[in-house]
Amino acid sequence: MTDSGMFALTGKVAVIWGGGGAIGSAMAATLAGAGARVAVIGQSADRVDAAAARLRESGADCLALTGDATNLDECRRLVGQIVERHGRLDICLNAIGGGAGKVLYPAEDYPVDAWDWIIDLNLLSTLHGTQAAAKAMIEAGNGGRVLSVSSVRGQLGIDAGYSAYVAAKGAVNALTRQWATEWARHRITVNAIAPTFVDTPQVAMLLDDPEFKRKLIDRVPLRRVGSTDDLAGAVLFFCSEASSFVTGQVLTIDGGLTATQ
Ligand SMILES: NC(=O)c1ccc[n+]([C@@H]2O[C@H](COP(=O)([O-])OP(=O)(O)OC[C@H]3O[C@@H](n4cnc5c(N)ncnc54)[C@H](OP(=O)(O)O)[C@@H]3O)[C@@H](O)[C@H]2O)c1
């Protein structure tokens, strides 16, 4: 297959953990645009319903489900509902996380409650969502795709009190390699994308500060902040046949930021 058909997702079913969020809903739209049926998951029914309504307006077959992805039983229940509805699950996208800017502390005094919150939000949700999805994929025997949203902070330190977030995203990168190794025998590929700042509500307060934004852009060779559209090509690549021999990789999507470090 050498044409754009290698990016087609017709007949595939995807779960998007955090699909009610800014990046998750954009990723869901990308997959749906390539023909996948999608299920968006979050804790707030309002948020997932709103995301699902937008997706359906543009023609997507979208299921909206609520649950807490830090709880493995909940994740298995949610995956069960998707498989019951569609008879299969092919793609697991992990887009739950963030919170880093809300809990900034010096490394030597990083409080354990903030640590637990960030690790649960960014790492435990990724662990349990992926475990539930991968088990269904393994049982079905059709292979699959796992793609997690990491961050450039998984590989770069930052002098701004981010201990828990860098630990969580570094662990997501490590698990990407570990899962890729363990699940290759099941033809499940596991990759991650690692963006720098993406223009979303989570970082809006920072980007609204002109001085912060100017300094940020000065460090990015392509001289701009990322958008959710900048993630779409990688999402399609990693979730389709186009990447069938690519696994265990973390792709930075950062306008060249990490190339300068
Ligand atoms: N935005 C950026 O600049 C940026 C840059 C690099 C990496 N990232 C990463 O990209 C990912 C998505 O970020 P975003 O900006 O799209 O954040 P977001 O808009 O806050 O989306 C995250 C979604 O996750 C859901 N969620 C949180 N906890 C959950 C749980 N326990 N169970 C189920 N759903 C849960 C939230 O919905 P509920 O509250 O309804 O549960 C929310 O809709 C994160 O991993 C973040 O670290 C973001």
Uncertain runs: none
Hetero ligands:
NADP nicotinamide-adenine-dinucleotide phosphate
Please summarize the sheet with the most strands: 7 strands, parallel
What gyration radius follows from the Cα positions, in whole Å?
18 Å
> Which structural category do the helix and sheet elements fall into?
alpha/beta
The CATH architecture classification is 3-Layer(aba) Sandwich
Whole-number tally of structural domains:
1
The top level CATH class name: Alpha Beta
The CATH H-level superfamily is NAD(P)-binding Rossmann-like Domain
Q: In summary, what is this structure?
A:
The chain has 261 residues and is α/β, with parallel strands linked by helices. It is built from eight helices and seven strands. It is globular, with a radius of gyration of 18 Å.
Please give a structural write-up.
By secondary structure, the protein is α/β, with parallel strands linked by helices. It has one domain (4-255): Rossmann fold (3-Layer(aba) Sandwich). Helix content is 44%, strand content 15%. It contains eight helices and seven strands, in the order βαβαβαβαβαβαααβ. The protein has helices at residues 22-33, 45-57, 72-86, 112-140, 163-183, 204-207, 210-219, 229-239, and strands at residues 13-17, 37-42, 62-66, 91-94, 144-149, 188-195, 250-253. It has a seven-stranded parallel beta sheet, sandwiched between helices. It is globular. The mean pLDDT is 97. The protein binds NADP nicotinamide-adenine-dinucleotide phosphate. NADP nicotinamide-adenine-dinucleotide phosphate binds next to α1, β2 and α4.
